[in-house]
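Internal tracking record. Fields below are filled automatically when a chain is submitted to the structure queue. Please do not edit lines marked as system-generated. If the sequence contains nonstandard residues, flag them in the REMARKS field before resubmitting.
Queue: standard
Priority: normal
Entity type: single polypeptide chain
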Amino acid sequence: MNVKALLLIALIVTVPATGIAQSKTETSPMHATGTFEVKVAPQTADNAPAKASGLGRLSLDKQFHGELEGIGQGEMLAAGGGQSGAYVALEKVTGTLKGHKGSFILVHRSLMENGAPKEWTVVVVPDSGTEGLAGLSGSMKITITGGKHFYDLSYTLPEPK
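SYSTEM-GENERATED OUTPUT FOLLOWS
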């Protein structure tokens, strides 16, 4: 199985995110839900070690709709063959989350074993929030139903000072 097929399997399977980051406040987590479109494009390795690794490198370009309106742009590395593999990605999200403008970084990690998802986590990088999203923490669950991508961002955001 090539890297692109592995990525497609990882995106088709519905697995909840785990490992919600700890909140800096005592507030209960909030949720933002909606849909997104994603374009994934293979990239060429640009140095000798990257070429030698055999890893697949892909760019991510997303459009978020719903309670999070904005764009997500990032890079993914993928490896594997047959029925098992993995991907990791970093994605910068810029937009408006329930009226709060700014940006934040998501880190993705997914493992597949024998054709079945083993883990899939998408977590907000601590202290990556800017402007109205400063202090944001949480995790994102991604599901795919009928070919359509849905997100559920469970998060905390400190009250403005």
